[in-house]
Amino acid sequence: MRVIVVGAGLGGLTLAQGLRRAGVDVVVYERDGALERPQGVSLHVDDRGASALRACLPPGHAAMVEATTGGPRTQTLRLSDVDGPLTVVGAQPSDGMAGGARPGRQVHRPLLRAVLLTGLEDVVRFGAEFTRFEQRADGTVQAWFADGRTDIADVLVGADGIGSAVRRQYLPHAQVVDTGRRMLMGATPLHAVADAGLPGLIGDNPATVHVSGTMMALGVLRFAESPVVARQRWLPTLRPDAVAHIEDYVMWALPVTQEWLGAASLSAAVWRRAKELTADLRLIVAEAWPDVTVALRIGMIPPMPAWPASPVTVIGDAIHLAPGFGGNLAMQDAYHLCQVLAEANRGRRELLDAIGGYEDTMRRTGFPTPATTKAGA
Ligand SMILES: Cc1cc2nc3c(=O)[nH]c(=O)nc-3n(C[C@H](O)[C@H](O)[C@H](O)COP(=O)(O)OP(=O)(O)OC[C@H]3O[C@@H](n4cnc5c(N)ncnc54)[C@H](O)[C@@H]3O)c2cc1C
């Protein structure tokens, strides 16, 4: 069996690693150049993402990810400075109820992506923008790319994120709805804000604090093991630059509206606007790395009825959006799809039955339930 994966993000690379381990011939086409975009700063990985990584990655890769996570995050703390200095005034357990956060650990995203790419150097084609596909009479699928390349496989997987070109052609009725909400996000080296007392106050747990009429979310990432040391121990084939110049930091996020954000879109402009909001916590934003400050668009894809299975399918943000845990869902989809494709490859299952089985599971686990829709509103 041959599989084309479109998109070398979290879902696409987890799938490619898993398929390779299962002996399936896989090729990944990625629009970006090799090191063009860091694709985010950090990621809260919960049980769904962690078990997908353990199942799909070779043991050394999985050990490298686990060695470099932050500490356990079991609750979300509520902070206040109303009566003076910043103190903890409440805590909400991370029990995953009503679409809320599940327990997990913080992972440095560029490092995770570098780990996911390790060993796939001969499989990932960078600078290849997928444009369209055609299902052929013999049951295979042909894909076309912007530079004129074309390729044929038994299965085509759209792992190409929120703007998915695969979804646009395959499921044109699945529309991304812009909620008008935006999230300003950034990261600040921990040493620059150590004097503010915040890192000691919250430990490894995420925290929220009300500032200037909005709620700021904070999360510290302290690497359990130095990434340089962990690379030597677990994954010496990892690119050395993936672990260079990494230090502990605090992530912050500020929900705003598109209206408030106005035309600011470049990192420096978004960073300036974030500083205007943060009053007492200004230091955290003032000392942030301006080039990783972003305004994230919060969209949603309304759940849709089942469609007939075919050799084309989709995973992750290409088919469902979940602010705060979409990466976990993308890795979970990758794991589920990998399992059924491996079964089909071994002749234990018909291919279309396998893909249909994955899609049923994906709709059940990835589409928002009424409770999660409410919590995300
Ligand atoms: C700032 C921020 C913080 C987040 N924090 C968390 C978190 O803590 N926990 C969590 O679980 N989730 C988090 N998310 C959500 C998470 O990042 C996404 O849900 C996740 O990346 C989705 O993975 P994916 O593989 O589906 O898509 P992506 O990771 O978006 O990957 C899609 C890939 O496809 C490529 N591509 C797109 N179009 C084409 C094309 N036409 N041809 C070829 N390639 C193409 C893109 O370049 C990209 O590499 C966060 C998101 C952001 C932006």
Characterise the protein shown here.
It is a single chain. The chain has 2 domains: 1-34 and 126-176 and 301-377, FAD/NAD(P)-binding domain (3-Layer(bba) Sandwich); 72-105 and 179-298, D-Amino Acid Oxidase, Chain A, domain 2. It is built from 14 helices and 18 strands. The chain has helices at residues 10-21, 47-56, 59-67, 109-117, 165-170, 190-193, 198-202, 227-234, 258-261, 267-277, 282-286, 326-345, 351-366, 370-376; strands at 2-6, 25-29, 42-46, 72-73, 75-80, 87-93, 104-108, 124-125, 130-135, 141-145, 150-153, 155-158, 177-189, 207-211, 214-221, 249-257, 294-300, 312-314. Helix 1 runs parallel beside helix 12, helix 2 (47-56) runs parallel beside helix 12 (326-345) and helix 3 runs antiparallel to helix 8. 41% of the residues are buried. The site of flavin-adenine dinucleotide (FAD) has 33 residues, from helix 1, strand 3, strand 17 and helix 12.
A few lines on this structure:
With 377 residues, the protein is α/β, with parallel strands linked by helices. The protein is 33% helix and 27% strand. The chain has helices at residues 10-21, 47-56, 59-67, 109-117, 165-170, 190-193, 198-202, 227-234, 258-261, 267-277, 282-286, 326-345, 351-366, 370-376; strands at 2-6, 25-29, 42-46, 72-73, 75-80, 87-93, 104-108, 124-125, 130-135, 141-145, 150-153, 155-158, 177-189, 207-211, 214-221, 249-257, 294-300, 312-314.
